[in-house]
Amino acid sequence: MKTTFKKIIAYILKTESRLVLWKYKPKIIAITGSIGKTSTKDAVYAVLSGISYVRKSEKSFNSEIGLPLTILGCPNGWNNPFTWLENIFKGLWLFLSPFGPHKYPEWLVLEAGVGKPDDMRDTAAWLKTDAVIITTIGETPAHIEFFNSHKHLVEEKSLLIKTLKKDGFLILNTDDESVCQMKNKTKNVAVTYGFKEGADILGSGDSILYNDKNEPEGIIFRADEGGNSLPVTIEGVFGRNHVYASLAALALVSALKFNMLDAISALKNYDVPPGRMRLLNGINDSLIIDDTYNSSPFACESALKTLGEIKCTGRKIAILGDMLELGKHTTEAHKNIGKIAKENADILVVVGPRAKAIKEGALEMGMGGEIFEFLNSFEAGNFIKTFVQKKDIVLVKGSQGMRMERVVEAILLDQKNKNKLLVRQDAEWLKKK
User: Which 8-state DSSP code applies to residue 117?
Assistant: First the structure.
């Protein structure tokens, strides 16, 4: 019954969305990939919102219902049928109103996710875009267990290119070979970004930004475009994923011929969503790298290498939960993360049944430090509260289903604002065990 209701709601909202797009004709930027969609969306929003009225997907509204909700400007109804009916009424009024009760956005920045085969095909059947950005897919991306092969998943994501208008731009991460090859799938103008020579927007020199007390406070790198080399600073976050997100946004700015200096200024303090390599203050004068939104092998490896790069006088603690939806790659991927953890952390905490393989990988590499193992995030949170010490840096990461934000909550200094600082703080999420 729930499935039937969901399908009916999705169909109605999709129909209303098409009518609304036809009426208001906003410019649409769609973003896909296995890693970095949300960070890229927020970076793009940051550079566009200073010059126009922009709406972006809230949180990770990237599904068959999420995209229409963003287009219509409606909230997630979760399990409340009255909210869904209200959303339908809002969508209808938005289209039928002769004046428009409010000004509609000139730009929409949308995430387009893929959870199973044909998801993107369904999206491509009705959405028409002015720009498509494809981030990183990686060798063992999330959701791969639902596809026959890596190639199958890449092909599904590439279908978003079919949504481009004739004068639309394709923005590609040239460092991911499977993404870079997608420029051969279209006649549209393609703009590339990344760290490989030949990228239209070339990143270089990314490093940790330290303050006067030699404490880490963000990242700094250079972006080269057409012979111009520009410094870019982003405060309050770590990790190459944010560098890539910024490069993607700058590639779009370049394609649209907007002002690059204004865009770089907008990126300095852009609104990075919770749970994505955000730097938070922890108890006992510790620092937390909160990367708890989700996890995949590529993203987890990147987070660990960032932890290894940071200079600190305390211990480097990696708290890693299960990476889900990897299918036959599960054990091998977790073991490999354990090997990488050995090189970048002093102490390893693994959480969940699959994460046992992380411990095995670390032991195989001869990790001499302490390794702790817990069944769930509640247990890990209770442990780390009494274990963390002055000047420790704690990386917390795991797939969404592991709810690793509970570990961050256990050692978060600013408990009053935890609802703003942590991911998955909606009432519906908090009800879940």
Answer: T
Q: CATH number for the domain including 295?
A: 3.90.190.20
Cα-Cα end-to-end distance for the chain: 24
Distance CA(40)–CA(226), nearest Å, equals 22
Name the nearest CA neighbour of 344 among 380, 324, 320: 320
Rounded distance between C-alpha atoms, residue 412 and residue 422, angstroms: 9
Q: Give, as one character, the DSSP assignment of residue 188.
A: S
Residue 187: partners with Cβ closer than 8 Å, 6 or more residues away: none
The range of the structural domain enclosing residue 369 comes to 278-431
**Cβ–Cβ < 8 Å for 374, 382:** no
* Residues 259, 323 within the same domain: no
- The answer to whether residue 402 sits within a structural domain is yes
Measured between alpha carbons, how far is 354 from 342 in angstroms, rounded to an integer?
Answer: 18
| 338-to-226, 273, 332, 368 alpha-carbon distances in Å | 41, 27, 10, 13
Do 325 and 227 belong to one domain?
no
* Pair of tokens at residue 111: 């995430």
- Claim to verify: residue 168 and residue 298 sit in the same structural domain: no
pTM more than 0.70: yes
Q: How many domains does the chain have?
A: 2
Q: Residue 99: its pLDDT value, please?
A: 60
* In contact, 281 and 413? CB cutoff 8 Å: yes
Here the CATH number for the domain that contains residue 33 is 3.40.1190.10
pLDDT tens across 237-272, in order? Answer: 999 999 999 999 999 999 999 999 999 999 998 888
Q: Are residues 182 and 206 in the same domain?
A: yes
Q: Cα(193)–Cα(186) distance, rounded to whole angstroms?
A: 17
Beta-ladder partners of 320: 350, 397
Domain end position, chosen among 230, 247, 267: 267
Query: How many CB atoms lie under 10 A from the CB of residue 309?
Result: 14
Q: Do 204 and 184 have their domain in common?
A: yes
Tens digits of per-residue pLDDT, 296-329?
Answer: 998 999 999 999 999 999 999 999 999 998 988 9
